[in-house]
Q: What sequence folds into this?
């Protein structure tokens, strides 16, 4: 069970956590313990030093407005565009530059090596581009035939 | 006189010894132990028999001599061994009366002999201990020689020469498909033999009459050509069916073979892995099982087709014209003989080639994981030379084989041409005498073309068979290896485990080096024991024995009063949590690695274990927290972080017994403090056996056990041992001084 706490945003945009014992901590960061396999469970608020201050068993337990604050803070840290289609690839050997359409718009990404495509549960694919940005393919089977053909060559 | 008054049944001894002993024994005397010596004191092979009776020790030698020593109080036996030779000194006070020598195969019996003397002294004429057990298979040893009859029989079994036939074990489940494949092969072969037969009437009934002025019979031509086409079509369909079916089966056999071998490999003891190189094992499982698979699906099938073609062709040829057929088949025995000659040479060659190939992979698997050492010592050239040498040896072997092999094919081709010439010559002479038609000769020539190409491809099977047989032999080598840590036949179910361990007169040797001797220790539930000693004193061996990675050679280890050799391995190891010096993380997520020993663990359990191991905070800092990939090429984690993950792994299975083998040795003192905190959670309430080089880490231990050259020399807690001013005190002082110097 998640302990009682208070979360606010200061004027400077930092999060301040007030714990049940009355201590306040400025600049806390929300972290998901299982961002891929269980994104809504096991969240933690950690201090600037990386210490866990508060454990949240489930995001649903968190009352508003703390919940929104947490999600707001997590958003930029978890920028992970979904690939909707692969329009072209420069070559079938890596490194390969892919022109992709994502739910955040069109972009191009560089795949350094085949093993940067990581299979996670339920057939989802997580692709690391050469700059460390991560793109997700939620359901490879749902891509159009052309994209699937491109993808198939790298799996 | 009742035979059973002797501890050793005299009837088991060789007759030569028995009669001599019986003559020597006095009425009131009984035999307590005996063992055969096989060396003389000046190290020559000669049999002898040492006998311990209630009143004296006797030594009988081959040359009819008998020595004896009465069992006076000051008489002692002292057993030592060095480099495979064991020695038993018979000592009276300070004086050595004599010595007996024997090879190490007899050492177990000799130890039993010595301990019998001690028992005899301790409890007079009480019940003697039963005969010693074989350290390998736990069957009773032959009382005199100290050898195990069961193991000796296994060693003496000759390696099977028809290794490939042993693959039948894996082919059996697919015998229906195999039979189907064979049927299709038969039919397909038959279909390919139809066309040359049809050329005969085509020539004799259509072409020759046309040359002689008869017009061409179009219907006949259509009939024969149609027949040719149908035969080709049929051969195509059947050929596809057989290839597909047999490839399907062989892939499955190959996969079964790999899986079985891997599972068997996992069951083998650490002793096996210690003696084998990774590259060699990888190549056995990978490329060689693939080679067998290829052989089964392609080469064996081809060979079968070849044999069928040859038999069928021969039958057809004989029915057309026996004399011409005889001429055609004349070169066959010569080729068969050639194949036989080359076979022997190629077999040894390919076997050797494969070992060399393993050598090449071994260089790779040595160098790549050790690349930091290679670079640090700037030994790239040396490794490169090593690789080059292996490669060149490989090349040289290949060259030698290819010389022989290269000669083979052209010779077969030459024989083919000669054979054709013979048939032409004989055929023309027969046609000239009107004994056969032109059509028959054409058919013969057409058949011969197929016939000899078959022989040619058949000759290739030699090489393929040898390769596959060599591969099969190497795989069966693994499969035939029996684990030296065997599962008990009738496992004892484990009582509730509290963590009570007792070591009783434990001895162990690596090869012919005695590492532990006569170690006895009682460990109470929840106690923390620190094992201390210089490197090579047997600390890690003791830990390996307690985990049952190896089995004790002498004595026994008990958990809750049950010999661990009588427990099911899996059940036993469930109670053991092991934290090693070099924590090994598998490729996978952090969460998977923590849950390695308990795959069904919930996320709550994983997080709780990580918290207790002080790993939670740093895991949260990883980009994907618990979902981050670690392992071979994953996230770079520091040694301390890896160690804390492995501590969490041990915590999650909640073992009663915890073994820390130099758990904090590879990290700096700062990180060690962090890990120590994690370990405190782990140790609480569990029986803990900790090995540490750094003595300060063992301060909290309830008892310290100091080992020196395989023996326990001191036991006690830190303060008591310092007080005692013995081995431990010296070690501790040396270390504190070193530390002080390092800090100064």
A:
């Amino acid at each position: 069970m998640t302990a009682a706490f208070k979360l606010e945003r200061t004027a400077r945009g930092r999060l301040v956590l007030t714990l049940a014992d009355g201590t306040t901590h400025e600049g806390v960061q929300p972290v998901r313990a299982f961002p891929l396999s269980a994104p809504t469970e096991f969240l933690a608020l950690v201090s600037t030093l990386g210490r866990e201050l508060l454990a949240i068993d489930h995001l649903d337990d968190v009352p508003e407005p703390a919940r929104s604050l947490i999600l707001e803070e997590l958003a930029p840290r978890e920028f992970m565009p979904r690939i909707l289609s692969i329009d072209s690839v420069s070559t079938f050997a890596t490194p390969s530059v892919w022109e992709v359409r994502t739910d955040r718009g069109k972009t191009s990404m560089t795949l350094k090596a085949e093993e940067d495509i990581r299979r996670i549960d339920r057939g989802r694919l997580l692709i690391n581009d050469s700059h460390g940005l991560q793109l997700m393919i939620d359901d490879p089977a749902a891509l159009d035939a052309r994209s699937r053909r491109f993808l198939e060559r790298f799996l | 006189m009742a035979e059973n008054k002797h501890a050793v049944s005299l009837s088991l001894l060789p007759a030569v010894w028995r009669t001599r002993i019986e003559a020597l024994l006095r009425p009131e005397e009984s035999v307590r132990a005996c063992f055969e010596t096989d060396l003389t004191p000046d190290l020559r092979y000669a049999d002898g028999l040492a006998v311990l009776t209630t009143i004296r020790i006797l030594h009988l030698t081959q040359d009819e001599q008998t020595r004896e020593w009465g069992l006076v109080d000051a008489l002692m036996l002292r057993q030592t061994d060095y480099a495979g030779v064991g020695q038993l000194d018979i000592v009276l006070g300070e004086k050595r009366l004599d010595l007996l020598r024997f090879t190490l195969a007899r050492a177990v019996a000799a130890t039993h002999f010595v301990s019998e003397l001690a028992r005899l002294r301790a409890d007079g004429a009480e019940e003697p201990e039963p005969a010693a057990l074989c350290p390998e298979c736990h069957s009773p040893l032959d009382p005199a020689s100290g050898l195990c009859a069961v193991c000796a029989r296994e060693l003496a079994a000759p390696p099977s020469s028809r290794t490939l036939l042993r693959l039948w074990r894996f082919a059996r489940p697919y015998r229906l498909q195999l039979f189907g494949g064979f049927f299709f092969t038969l039919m397909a072969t038959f279909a390919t033999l139809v066309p040359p037969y049809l050329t005969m009437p085509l020539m004799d009934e259509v072409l020759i009459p046309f040359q002689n002025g008869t017009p061409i019979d179009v219907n006949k031509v259509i009939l024969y050509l149609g027949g040719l086409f149908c035969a080709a079509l049929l051969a195509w369909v059947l050929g596809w069916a057989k290839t597909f079916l047999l490839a399907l089966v062989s892939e499955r056999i190959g996969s079964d073979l790999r899986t079985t071998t891997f599972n068997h490999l996992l069951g083998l003891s650490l002793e096996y892995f210690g003696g084998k190189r990774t590259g060699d094992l990888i190549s056995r499982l990978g490329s060689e099982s693939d080679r067998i698979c290829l052989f089964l699906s392609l080469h064996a099938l081809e060979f079968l087709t070849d044999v069928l073609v040859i038999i069928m062709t021969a039958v057809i040829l004989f029915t057309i014209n026996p004399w011409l057929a005889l001429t055609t088949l004349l070169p066959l025995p010569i080729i068969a003989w050639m194949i036989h000659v080359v076979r022997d040479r190629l077999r040894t060659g390919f076997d050797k080639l494969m070992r060399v190939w393993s050598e090449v992979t071994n260089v790779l698997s040595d160098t790549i994981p050790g690349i930091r050492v290679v670079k640090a010592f700037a030994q790239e050239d040396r490794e490169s030379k090593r690789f080059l040498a292996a490669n060149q040896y490989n090349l040289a072997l290949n060259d030698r084989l290819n010389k022989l092999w290269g000669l083979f094919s052209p010779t077969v081709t030459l024989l083919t041409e000669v054979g054709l010439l013979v048939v032409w010559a004989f055929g023309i002479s027969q046609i000239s005498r009107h004994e056969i038609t032109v059509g028959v000769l054409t058919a013969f020539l057409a058949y011969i073309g197929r016939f000899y190409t078959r022989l040619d491809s058949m000759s290739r099977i030699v090489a393929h068979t040898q390769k596959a047989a060599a591969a099969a032999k190497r795989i069966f080598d693994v499969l035939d290896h029996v684990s030296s840590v065997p599962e008990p036949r009738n496992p004892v179910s484990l009582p509730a485990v509290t963590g009570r361990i007792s070591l009783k007169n434990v001895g162990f040797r690596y090869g012919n080096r005695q590492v532990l001797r006569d170690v006895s220790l009682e460990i109470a539930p929840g106690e923390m024991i620190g094992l201390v000693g210089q490197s090579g004193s047997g600390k890690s061996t003791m830990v390996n024995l307690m985990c049952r990675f190896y089995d004790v050679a002498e004595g026994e280890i008990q958990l809750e009063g049950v010999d661990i050799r009588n427990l099911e391995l899996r059940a036993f190891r469930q109670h053991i949590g092991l934290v090693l010096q070099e924590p090994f993380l598998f490729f996978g997520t952090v969460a998977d690695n923590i849950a390695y020993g308990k795959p069904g663990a919930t996320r709550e359990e994983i997080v709780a274990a990580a918290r207790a191991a002080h790993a939670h905070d740093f895991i949260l800092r990883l980009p994907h927290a618990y979902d981050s990939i670690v392992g071979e090429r994953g996230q770079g984690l520091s040694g301390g972080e890896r160690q804390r993950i492995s501590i969490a792994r041990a915590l999650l299975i909640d073992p009663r017994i915890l073994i820390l083998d130099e758990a904090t040795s590879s990290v700096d003192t700062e990180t060690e403090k962090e890990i120590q905190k994690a370990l405190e959670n782990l140790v609480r309430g569990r029986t803990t056996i900790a090995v540490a080089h750094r003595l300060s880490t063992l301060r909290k231990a309830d008892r310290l056990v100091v080992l020196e050259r395989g023996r326990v020399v001191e036991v006690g807690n830190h303060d008591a041992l310092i007080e005692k001013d013995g081995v431990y005190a010296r070690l501790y002082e040396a270390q504190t001084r070193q530390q002080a110097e390092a800090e100064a």
